Amino acid sequence: MLFAHDTECALVAAAALVNTAGPGRDELSDVGALDDFVSVHGFSGRHEHTDVELRQVRALRPRLHRVWYADADEVVEIVNGLLRESHALPQLIRHDDEPYHLHAVPRDAPLATRMAVEAAMALADLIRMGELRRLRHCDHPDCANVLVDLSKNRSRRFCDAGCGNRAAVSAYRARRAASHS
Ligand SMILES: [Zn+2]
Ligand SMILES: [Zn+2]
After folding, report:
1. Alpha-carbon torsion angle 5, 87, 77, 1, nearest 10
2. Ligand 2 centroid to 147 CA: how many Å?
3. Strands 135-137 and 146-148, how do they pair?
4. Mean pLDDT across the chain, nearest whole number?
5. Is 102 a residue whose pLDDT tops 90?
């Protein structure tokens, strides 16, 4: 494990949130879609299933997306801004079956606030370890998704949306076409 478990989960969730929007698509268009997102990424605590909550989460998305393009100073500005606005106060807690981990806002804080703070705390870890380069873009030419490279040797190239398979299939077809010509 490169980073603490909660850091890795938060980074994966942040990338997944960013990837719910792309050119001509939005997978977070209603409250039901947010419910699915919350359960896939195991966000516990307050969850209201309201349009207001959905709007707040959607408003967080472009701010997190920016992190994948920003230099370290700008990431720091975004992270500090998110922590300040949320009145973050890190506390070690244990709940459900999880070991001690950090929460920096109460579990009854709004969902978007908890998402923002978890992402910000995880990004703070990346910055402190000089590992911001692990925030990358999918290598597939037709894909605009972001990814977090948590591999030991920084070898991850494709996002989770099947781009690795697609790239392998195109490479195979290209090789076959070349050998038949
Ligand atoms: Zn927790
Ligand atoms: Zn991709």
Report:
1. -10
2. 8
3. antiparallel
4. 94
5. no
* pLDDT of 1: 67
Interatomic CA distance for residues 136 and 23, integer angstroms: 18
Tell how far the Cα of 28 is from the centroid of ligand 2, in angstroms: 18
Phi/psi of residue 97, each to 5°? -100, 10
Pair type for strands 101-103 and 91-93: antiparallel
All residues with CB under 5 Å from ion ligand 2 = 138, 140, 143, 145, 159, 161, 163
48: which residues sit within 8 A by CB, 6+ positions away? 110, 111
Taking the centre of ligand 1 as the mean of its atom positions, its distance from the CA of residue 61, in whole angstroms, is 21
pLDDT, tens digit, 9 for 90 and up, residues 115-157: 999 999 999 999 999 999 999 999 999 999 999 999 999 999 9
Q: Which two tokens stand for residue 76?
A: 């720091």
Under the phi-then-psi rule, with left for phi > 0, alpha for psi from -120 to 50, and beta for the rest, what region is 24? left
Q: Look at residue 52 and tell me whether its pLDDT is greater than 70.
A: yes
